[in-house]
Write a structure and sequence with these properties.
The longest helix is centred in the N-terminal third of the chain and has 14 residues. Helix content is 72%, strand content 0%. It has 34 helices and no strands. It is mostly helical and 591 residues long. It starts with a helix and ends in a 26-residue tail after the last helix.
């Protein structure tokens, strides 16, 4: 019977093996080990529980090797409590037993317990092996526990695994994921024979930390070294190409490598390709890839919808994809809903935005800061500033973007005093404004005639918060003075600023000169604009209008002729409106 069970076990025929084994009243350690390994391979949880009881009944409950195998099994099944119970009941433990527990905790996401057990192991005088160090470093990496990781590295340097490839690769991964790329690079250079894992750690590290060029450099070196990238390598380099703003041609080259190596059917790789294409502006390629997927998932759909929202001109495509996701029950997450709120804001479609808001409430997704900010932006851009204020007030947690978005909403709706008042409240609650906050404030002041408040905001921006104004800030100030007829103050500010004067600055001067009849100042502003934007017809038309208002008909005719010679055609004006009788766009089909 023993030999028959052993033969079936060697053949991997688990049902017959386990049935015969359950009828045995006694057995041998070697057979138990083989049976347990078979349970691990087949993930036979119920059978393993029976075998556990069987070996205790037959007096093998204290066997070191069997208990270690049981720990491995329970950890593989995710039952960390049962594994710990076996571990605590062991009269003797080997380094393999300790490592099985540390590795199991790490693989099941119990990183703090893994680190505590590693410390207990050290206190018990047990010397770690390369797998113990690898699992412990994985726990340090996942928790970004830099101090503990450095202590583990100190232990490694004092022992015999200092040059072990597995351990060094784990150290490279640890330092790169914790943002210590210089240390990771130093360790990487000390590896004599690098394997794919060590290369992947460096490529991924640079990609995660935002160093796309370095990530590509390491990738090219790996290819020159004759190594073939795997799915993980391609995923990391695609993340680098997405976040680093690489050209579409680079993404296309990576796509070619993906197809050549046969990873085109991997959903995660396809999703990353869609993300890379969309972030580099090639939404057609992203859409083609998405439509070619046999089974679309949340990640790939989110990447495409986010791309549509980012470009701002693909509202219909985003809407159709969102409806398809609902119809096929792909799933929903906060990122998709935030992106759809962005689409609604760009379309200024209140009906669509309110439906997305209802989705967020219905599916009880986490109403986090990003969702709140997106709601404020959507309602303010859709003309419902009071609903934007209500969304702001309902947020349990706010950040500087929350305050800035509502300030911007007030500015665009002409509520300058409310924008300034909200800014004061923001300061009183301990939030520090950024350059975008001040840009929104200055815009609000310029469009509501709050000259003194605008000057105060610029003064606080520079002297209180040490934020250097950009051309956009000065443009708002010039516009603020110009709208009040203070052309001399506007021109004086324009002459004092230490930044390059752009079209926006001169445009504000030209517009005010037209309103208040400042011919000489209008000529100077227009002359600069003609050099910067020779094909922009608006500048010619405005200057011609200034001349006409002053009775300088010959000069006006010359400007019109110059406009014609430069082929600067005036674009026809147009307006957009929503049909009031049009029914609401249904996002879900009626059941």
């Amino acid at each position: 019977m023993f030999s028959k069970i052993q033969s079936l076990c060697n053949l991997g025929r688990s049902p017959e093996t386990l049935n015969l084994f359950s009828n045995q009243t006694s057995s041998h350690t070697s057979l138990y080990l083989k049976i347990l390994q078979l349970c691990i391979d087949k993930k036979a949880q119920n059978q393993c529980h029976l075998i556990h009881a069987h070996l205790i009944t037959n007096g093998f409950g204290s066997d070191l090797h069997l208990n270690t195998k049981l720990i491995i099994f329970y950890m593989k099944m995710g039952d960390v409590i049962a594994a710990r119970k076996v571990f605590d009941g062991m009269p003797d433990r080997s380094v393999v037993s300790w490592t099985a527990m540390v590795s199991g905790y790490s693989q099941n996401g119990c990183f703090e317990k893994a680190l505590m057990l590693f410390s207990d192991m050290r206190h018990c005088g047990v010397k770690a092996n390369q797998f113990t160090y690898g699992s412990t470093l994985r726990a340090c990496t996942s928790t970004r526990y830099l101090d503990m990781g450095m202590q583990v590295q100190g232990c490694i340097q004092k022992g015999r695994f200092v040059d072990n490839l597995f351990v060094k690769s784990a150290l490279v991964d640890f330092h790169s994921k914790c943002g210590k790329m210089e240390d990771a690079s130093y360790l990487f250079e000390t590896i004599k024979e690098r394997d794919l894992v060590s290369w992947n750690s460096m490529i991924s590290g640079y990609a995660v930390q935002g160093f796309a060029d370095d990530s590509f450099c390491i990738f090219r070196s790996m290819l020159r070294g004759g190594l073939v990238p795997d799915c993980y390598t391609l995923g990391s380099i695609l993340r680098a190409s997405a976040e680093g703003g690489s050209a579409v041609i680079v993404v296309g080259q990576i796509h070619g490598i993906v197809a050549q190596l046969g990873y085109g059917s991997y959903d995660i790789v396809t999703g990353l390709l869609i993300n890379a294409y969309s972030k580099n502006g090639s939404l057609r390629s992203a859409k083609d890839l998405h439509q070619g997927m046999l089974k679309k998932d949340v990640f790939s759909s989110t990447a495409l919808i986010t791309g549509y929202a980012r470009e701002g001109i693909y509202g219909v495509d985003a809407l159709n994809l969102f409806k398809e996701m609902n119809r096929t029950s792909i799933g929903m997450d906060d990122v998709i809903l935030c992106s759809m709120l962005n689409v609604s804001a760009n379309l200024a479609s209140l009906s669509l935005g309110t439906q997305i808001h209802a989705f967020a409430v219905k599916f009880q997704l986490s109403y986090d800061v990003a969702m709140g900010n997106a709601l404020i932006d959507m309602y303010s851009k859709s003309g419902e500033i009071e609903d934007a204020k209500r969304a702001f007030d309902e947020m349990e947690e706010k950040n500087v973007i929350s305050w800035t978005t509502l300030i911007s909403g007030y500015a665009k709706h002409g509520y300058g005093h409310k924008a300034v008042s909200l800014y004061k409240k923001m300061e009183s609650e301990g939030f520090e404004p950024n350059d975008v906050t001040f840009l929104s404030l200055l815009f609000a002041c310029s469009h509501t005639g709050l000259t003194d408040e605008g000057c105060d905001c610029l003064n606080e921006m520079v002297n209180k918060y040490n934020i250097k104004p950009r051309a956009e800030h000065y443009s708002c100030m010039v516009d603020l003075f110009a709208r009040q007829g203070l052309l001399e103050e506007a021109y004086s500010l324009l002459c004092r600023i230490d930044i390059k004067r752009n079209a926006s600055l001169w445009g504000a001067i030209l517009g005010a000169s037209s309103v208040y009849g400042y011919t000489s100042l209008g000529e100077e502003a227009a002359g600069n604009l003609f050099s910067m934007q020779p094909e922009n017809s608006v500048n010619y038309v405005v200057l011609a209008g200034i001349y006409s208002a002053a009775g300088l008909w010959d000069d006006a005719w010359k400007i019109r002729k110059l406009m014609k010679d430069r082929k600067a055609k005036k674009n026809a004006g147009y307006s957009l409106f929503l049909a009031t009788k049009r029914s609401m766009i249904p996002l879900m089909e009626a059941s």
